[in-house]
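Ticket #4471: complex job returned nothing on first submit. Input attached below:
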Amino acid sequence: MKKNILYSIISLCALTITLSACHKDKKVTPGDPNTGQVFSVAGDQVGRPGIATVFVSAADKDNFNVTVPSVMGAAYQAKFQTQLQAYNGGAYTTNLLGLSASAFTGVLATDVLGVSTTGKTTYYDGTNVLTGRTLTDDVIDVSLILIFGGPDASKNPGLTSDHVNGNDKPFSTSFPYEAAPW
Amino acid sequence: MKKTKLIIAAAAMALVLGGGILWASDHADAPNVKGKSTDITDLYVFQGENTSNLVFVGNVQGLLSPTATKTASFDENTMIEFKIDNTGDNVEDLVIQCVYKGGKMYIYGPVKPVSPGTSSTVVGTASVVVPVTPYGADAVTVTSSTGIKAFAGPRDDPFFFDLDQFHKIVGGTASGFNNPGTDTFAGTNVLSVVVEVPKSMLNSTGKLGVWLQTKTK
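Support reply: We reran it on our side without changes. The output follows.
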């Protein structure tokens, strides 16, 4: 009888300890459902806007998405230069940044977005070049000017701006910055 | 004879247009990702409202109509991953991994990846977990104790471009852009992940290289 009571008390204690331990565990480390999972099949990849779609040929598009940036320059610079000259009827010399065809496409072929951590972030604002990309940056006009505009941005005036200068909804200055959906 | 010529001309034009480039930032850029949960539309990285922070925006599944947005969803089988190089060799030193599970976006890092490249292992436990904002609801945001802010859900596509006119130029039916132009992306949505991180977590000496990847299990 005594033994039974003792056994019950011990059991109760054990149960209590287990329960409280469980409760404590839950509070301290919520189980993470994804830890250690492997995502091994490469999908899409992008650094700067429009690079893959403008400079990569149809046959190379899937390959470009699975090529790591550290080897992109070697794999794609020459192809990009051919495409750049094709857009300009072979007449590309330099652009507003003073970059030759090989230098410009050398920059573009490594599809990584440069971002400053010490100053203004902008795709291009006339002074800062490729220090980030904000939501309001007119990256298309910047791209068109650098591709078609020649050394002083005056060549091909019909091709250097799409005359869409902003988004269809205003952005917020506060997190999460983007506009609510339509 | 005339008719034949016209047909040939039309066929040639169709060929030019069909094979023409589609310049939509990165929307539907390649056959293997077009129309899938892995299709990235845009990457944005900029200084936050608090200038001690950097904001990373990764957008996927573009050109969603309002109706399509109601049923659009992140995919538990797809990781959205920001790659960050802080040494200038175009190899990632840090990653921010975003994995959708059970209606929430789990965000890992910034943290050193298990290995660089196109295959990724989820590192550690989530820095912050944010419920995905339902269509039509106010934006749900979460801030971790370490100062990382997160949002995931549908947003207006912030990209703007007169893509239709560009197609006409490439197709040879127009010689230049119109003024004013027409934003082809007006009225369309994307699924967006926004992560704001204290710059102090990025081990930067002043400049980073950033790119965005998607990948599946």
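Residues 2-28 of chain A form the longest helix (27 residues). Closing as resolved unless it happens again.
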